[in-house]
Amino acid sequence: MTDSPLATATAQILKAEREPGLKSVVKTFFDETTFTASHVVHDPSTKTAVIIDSVLDYEAASGRTKHTSAEQIVAYVKAEGLSVAWQLETHAHADHLSAAPWLQEQLGGKLGIGADIVRVQEVFGKIFNAGTPFARDGSQFDHLFRDGDQFKVGALDAIALHVPGHTPADMAFIIGDAAFIGDTLFMPDYGTARADFPGGDACMLFRSIRRLLSLPDQTRLFLCHDYKAPGRDTFAWETTVGAERAGNIHVHDGAQEDEFVQMRTTRDAKLSLPNLIMPSVQINMRGGHMPEPEENGVSYIKIPINKL
Ligand SMILES: [Fe+2]
């Protein structure tokens, strides 16, 4: 069976290997409150940049938002003289709010996510009874990516790969020689993302991961989260295909799909939901925008009782 998006991605990574000018420059900002790694990746020749999986700070008790994390990104982009072409989400996050709309106001860039966000909107639109004002067609985003979509970041080649499993809409974005793989793999010593949210599928996650692991060994992988593994006391968010294939505790070379699905399902059943799942999902399914304000001008987050 041929997998032409994968072949194109592989060729892109090997080309960047041969021509150092086509390697991407990556700066990561780690939010210890939600364990999220946001990445700013840019083309060194044109200074064109992409911001991936930004974080809007949110205090659950008070319902207040802050831009402390996002301001660090703005400061970096300005100091480096970058121009932002894209704000990308690897998926609709359930554990943090996206700062993409605010960052778009500060820095510009088109907002992109996987095309299957419409399936996520359908599922969560129902769970949160979002009603007709909530469009379930992905129109909150500027661009919906499909598997194999190619785009440019300045002089760098880029391609989107659909890697469902954690959610139906997860995308990996490969920019130059670096892959931003969202919630699929975590560091080798921590394993893989959970697959038990509505629309998640452990079997699909395994296949998406094996697809990513067929990229060249030297491919740099940038993760969306790290929780520190037992015995490791620093956060880490960068690894390689080779390191994951050799040592990922869940999906190293030789790991079997049925055993993975069994392990993942058992483990997920014991995990509690992320602290910020209620606000995160309602805001991120709207492209990072708050729910439509009520007649008093205030936006509200709903909590469905006994639904999640
Ligand atoms: Fe996630």
From TrEMBL:
<dbReference type="InterPro" id="IPR044528">
    <property type="entry name" value="POD-like_MBL-fold"/>
</dbReference>
<keyword id="KW-0479">Metal-binding</keyword>
<dbReference type="InterPro" id="IPR001279">
    <property type="entry name" value="Metallo-B-lactamas"/>
</dbReference>
<protein>
    <submittedName>
        <fullName>Beta-lactamase</fullName>
    </submittedName>
</protein>
<dbReference type="GO" id="GO:0050313">
    <property type="term" value="F:sulfur dioxygenase activity"/>
</dbReference>
<dbReference type="InterPro" id="IPR051682">
    <property type="entry name" value="Mito_Persulfide_Diox"/>
</dbReference>
<dbReference type="Pfam" id="PF00753">
    <property type="entry name" value="Lactamase_B"/>
</dbReference>
<feature type="domain" description="Metallo-beta-lactamase">
    <location>
        <begin position="35"/>
        <end position="225"/>
    </location>
</feature>
<dbReference type="GO" id="GO:0006749">
    <property type="term" value="P:glutathione metabolic process"/>
</dbReference>
<dbReference type="GO" id="GO:0070813">
    <property type="term" value="P:hydrogen sulfide metabolic process"/>
</dbReference>
<dbReference type="InterPro" id="IPR036866">
    <property type="entry name" value="RibonucZ/Hydroxyglut_hydro"/>
</dbReference>
<dbReference type="GO" id="GO:0046872">
    <property type="term" value="F:metal ion binding"/>
</dbReference>
